[in-house]
Amino acid sequence: MPVSHVMAAAPSTTEVGVQEVLVTARRREESLQEIPLTIAAFSGDQLEQSNVSNVQDLAVLVPNLQITGGGSTQGTATGDFRMRGIPGVARYMDGVFLSGGQGALQSVVELERVEVLRGPQGTLFGRGAIGGALQYISKDPQKEFGARVRATVGTHERRDITANVDVPLGDTFFTKFTVASLHRGGFVDSTTIDKEFGGSDEKMFRAAMLWTPTESLTVKLSGQFTDIEEDGDPQVLFAVTPQLVTRNNTAGVPTATPNDPFLYNYCLTSIAGRCGLTGAPLTNSALPGEYETRSNQSWPSYKQKLYTFVGDVNFELNDNLALRWISGYRTFDWAHYGDSDGTEYVLFEQWRYTERREFSQELQLQGSYDRLNFTAGLYYDTGSQEAFSSRWQNLELNVTANRNALRAALGNTLVIPSTGSRNNLSNPDETAKAVFAEGTYKVTDAFSATAGLRYSRITANSRTLAPCVGTPTYGVLSESFCYSSVTREQQTEYSKVTPRVSLQYQWSPDLMTYLTYSMGFDAGGINSTPDPRPLAQQNPPLPNGGLFPFDPQVLNNYELGIRSDLLGGLVRLNSSLFYGIWDDIQVQQELVPTTRWTTNAGQATVSGIEVEGAAVVSSAFRVNFNVAYLNAKYTDLGNPGQVNQLTLDTPFPFAPEYSASLGLQFNQDLSSGAKLTYRTDYGWQDETWTNQDDLSRVKRPAYGLLSASVGYDSPAGNWGVSLAGTNLTDEYYRVSGFRIPDVLIDFGNVASPREFALNFRFNFD
After folding, report:
1. Could you report the per-residue pLDDT of 647-699, keeping only the tens digit for each?
2. Alpha-carbon span 671 to 674, nearest angstrom
3. Neighbour tally for 728: CB within 10 Å
4. Cβ distance 69 to 76 under 8 Å?
5. First and final C-alpha spacing in the chain
6. Up-side HSE of residue 608: CA atoms within 13 Å toward CB?
7. What class, spelled out in words, does domain 3-764 have in CATH?
8. Which sequence spans correspond to the domains of the chain?
9. Which of 82, 278, 440, 753 meets the CB 3.0–4.6 Å disulfide criterion with 450?
10. Taking the model in full, what pTM does it have?
């Protein structure tokens, strides 16, 4: 439940009302109700009460926030974030920028709070914050000794245990140690092997240090190791269409040819005696049911080892000025195996392995005066990686005997789809530099103005390399970066100035309105997948053989908002009306069958309204709710020769027109001093589409998720137990996936069914 909507868990009899919430959305601590931005904040306790165990669970609680897993292309632990239909969302852990989506769907462990900032945050957060930003703030070491243990058992072999201990080592030096082991069993059954897909194991260790040698100096250091392994994507094949499709033959002439499912079925039925294939055909009637797959993938689908180090030094120069220095270093290795067809055949499967390193530095000067508050700073980060991928396509059709049998039966003039295997190896890196400043000046006691500006310069380089092994052996999941030569190189550089201006008026202590203009941008980059076609078929060839840059996308956003506390603080009602113009939209297109590149399209508008509220019905009963409307549409397609898979009527992916949520909480004090807490949350969202272009998108129907819990806290508060249920209506819905246009199969990951969990909590002080 959003903290901005959450009332104190146990308010005193002399103070009953909506709780004040302090956030750091503008890099300084402020009351949420006094900031001219749309923010939802979640405390660690409220995440637990609302049954949020993973970052992805936030999506049903925050209006116009969409969080989905990477699915069969990157794994369920890889996150895809959108706010208000815009895909660029910057993530920060304790002030350090986290690039990419690998491991982004982390479990919620020992967090002080999560802040969700909607709308462009280009001034203070830079690139990647075109749609908004997420801030994860960890709990600091405490000044007194204490230990906590959380244990959970539940449906699908769920076994979680988390423990942390605060150990002060003097009056000024404090430490915290956290360990976690989180296990989930699978929930999608294979019909071809004895295996359940969708399970995961996550282990985490974190050590943090807080040192306060003087009243003016604070030093925080932390290091975290995370190990994630998934035993298979919870992926199913929703539909398959065997038919003739239009392809180019070796001379570049379009011709109608059978697609891959057609050829598989032809082998299985019409020429079964001459074709070595056996098994069920690729037809909709032969697909398994809900929570079932035909995949026979026997190895893990996702592995990641992640090391993160954060340093945060704050030095107060005087009563008005402070310097803050934030350092970050992150390194990880990441691997994913995707069985995109969800069958026992090697129709389309891919193994990807990446090693990445990131380093960042940020220096801030913060000022606080009677009428002026400001933050100014310098920023630098650099990242580099080696990325390897093996791809296997139609291996059964590539067997010489099967291929000859197909040609003989269907005619030698027929173009049979490309088959076989290939390896790709790339080596991209990027460097970003920025200077920024933003300040708020109190013109009068009621009227304030905010202005900010950020200048960013990003340089990106990429190389494609010739792997030592060009044709990979199926089932050999290589983690080698051996290469024989550099095949292509590409460099790009761009800069951007992003402003923000806000005007706000405090009509009374309980009523504020604001008008904000802000700009955000999502970084450009370089496509690093080479064109797999033979030279004779590259008509026309892609620039630099498929290694070509794409430009940043930019959002200019206008927002009108109101923040109000009514009825003496018993009711909170906040609302935001927004309108954005999205330029140079980045679009992934299938310019070559089964291979996608990013290009830039034209323009779109994004508008809507968000209403969020909370009410104290009584000292024991609290309610929170939100409702959102979103209208996102294309207004210009740019170069129609370049972007040919969109129309002005193409819907935005994962952008529901309507979404809403409702939360109810009742606290019951027992005569013994113990407390019972009853909590239920319901989140609903309208139908959405799963991909950006018309060729590969599929519709995801509207759905709603209901969760509930009842918890018991002992009289002394040192232990507790709760029973929680999620997806109580047992909704069957997909969270990711799309249709492969050339092959005409519709696949994707499905969400967990109804689950129950029993949670135990023990505190030792």
Report:
1. 888 899 889 999 999 999 999 999 999 999 999 999 999 999 988 888 888 88
2. 7
3. 16
4. yes
5. 27
6. 25
7. mainly beta
8. 3-764
9. 440
10. 0.89
